[in-house]
Write a structure and sequence with these properties.
There is one protein chain. The protein is built from 13 helices and no strands. The chain is mostly helical. Among the domains are: about 15-90, no CATH class; about 240-400, no CATH class. The longest helix is centred in the middle third of the chain and has 47 residues, at about 180-225.
Length: about 400
């Protein structure tokens, strides 16, 4: 591309500073003065086709006391402002980080489709539709069963009430011994109804907050996935020109490991769902396929996901007998131990190249500090920190 020299400045042309400091001219309209200042600024800055806003001015004298003082004060102010912003919008930042991890994890599938001729928008659409189809399949299995069970429970309520009043039944014996009905009536008459209503409202708020967070993460993940190449390009520009090539390689490797983490997490969840399905089939536990889907989805949540899934499956197994429920609870206890200390570390070592001990510690610390979202993004962050330490700090230490 040919280099365009800045146009020669006319010595008789008005100076920008003189025009600005000259104040308002009563003989000219303000618009004319602004246009003249703009034209003088273009000429003085040396605007060309390549230099849209003119030449870059000389650097300030960094040894000047004024420059040092202003820089220090600005640095302190920026650190304080960043800290205040992080505290104020910490939840949004966590949701954004989770959306970024999800988008980077789905990107390998989009790239695989684009390399086979599909445009990126079509690849993103296909991947999103596939995920939506899986979720819709889970709902198609769950909603009819939940509706049927709710109807059955409503029809059985009069039977339970009759059983409480019949001392020949198990519920009647419990009521006669522990006065369950009187305790419930006393609780309601002493303000228990308002406490129940408050608990229901609190639970409803938690559900609404959860739904809102899920919607935010999904929307952000879709936007990030659709525009991920541009996001990568923007990240590349944060590095100095002398180190940009190495920064590009490290950034791509970090994103590759994040993608590996998401794929490894999906593999782990598929194994948990398949194990649940097989166990439910062997013991004739109702809704085996639905339980497998549910456990696979819950297992995506670290720390508590598989535990919650195991409790739900054990409660459903209780309908077939106490022995089966106890066996199911023991099965999930053993599976949880194997998953946390054998399966997950093995998968993460292969996909994210993070040792098993670091995987467990990162998940526990992330969950303790930032909750469920922190546990979800802890391993990708640990993988990124490990790579940067290996390629910067540790490499410098080895060279000394």
């Amino acid at each position: 591309m040919p280099h365009h020299q800045p146009p020669d400045r006319d010595d008789d042309a008005p100076d920008v500073s003189e025009l600005i400091s000259g104040g308002d001219d009563a003989e000219r309209a303000p618009e004319e003065l602004i246009d003249e200042i703009h034209s003088a600024a273009r000429a003085e800055a040396g605007v060309t086709d390549e230099l849209t806003y003119g030449r870059v001015g000389p650097r300030f004298d960094r040894r000047s006391p004024f420059y040092i003082g202003v820089t220090g004060a600005t640095g302190v102010g920026v650190v304080f402002a960043i800290g205040w912003i992080v505290v104020a919008v910490g939840q949004i930042l966590l949701l954004t980080a989770l959306a970024f991890v999800i988008a980077v994890g789905m990107d390998p599938m989009v790239v695989w489709l684009t390399r086979r001729g599909l445009p990126r928008w079509a690849s993103v659409t296909l991947v999103l539709l596939s995920g939506l189809a899986v979720f819709a399949g889970f709902l198609a299995l769950a909603i009819p069963i939940l509706t049927s069970q709710a109807t059955t429970l409503a029809n059985e309520i009069p039977h339970y009430v009759h059983s409480l009043n019949n001392q020949a039944t198990f519920l009647g014996k419990l009521n006669a011994r522990y006065h369950l009905v009187k305790s419930i009536q006393s609780f309601i008459s002493n303000g228990g109804s308002s406490a129940i209503a408050g608990g229901i409202l609190g639970f409803g708020k938690v559900v609404l907050d959860l739904v809102g967070s899920v919607v935010v993460v999904v929307i952000l993940a879709i936007y990030l996935l659709a525009d991920l190449p541009r996001v990568k390009h923007g990240l590349y520009r944060f590095a100095p020109k002398s180190r940009r090539a190495r920064m590009v390689l490290l950034t791509d490797e970090i994103m590759t490991r994040i993608g590996g983490y998401v794929l490894g997490k999906l593999l782990n969840s598929l194994i948990a769902g398949f194990a649940t399905w097989i166990w439910a089939l062997l013991w004739n536990i109702p809704y085996a396929l639905l339980l497998g889907f549910m456990v696979a989805l819950l297992d995506l949540i670290p720390v508590i996901g598989s535990t919650v899934g195991g409790i739900i499956v054990s409660l459903i197994a209780l309908t077939d007998g106490l022995v089966i429920a106890i066996a199911t609870a023991l099965y999930y206890t053993l599976f949880r131990v194997l998953e946390d200390y054998l399966l997950t570390p093995k998968i993460m070592v292969r996909t994210v190249q993070v040792p098993g001990l670091v995987t467990v510690l990162a998940t526990v610390i992330g969950g303790a500090v930032f909750g469920v979202i922190g546990a979800l993004i802890a391993i990708p962050i640990a993988a990124a920190i490990k790579l940067l330490l290996e390629e910067t700090t540790l490499r410098h230490l080895e060279s000394r």
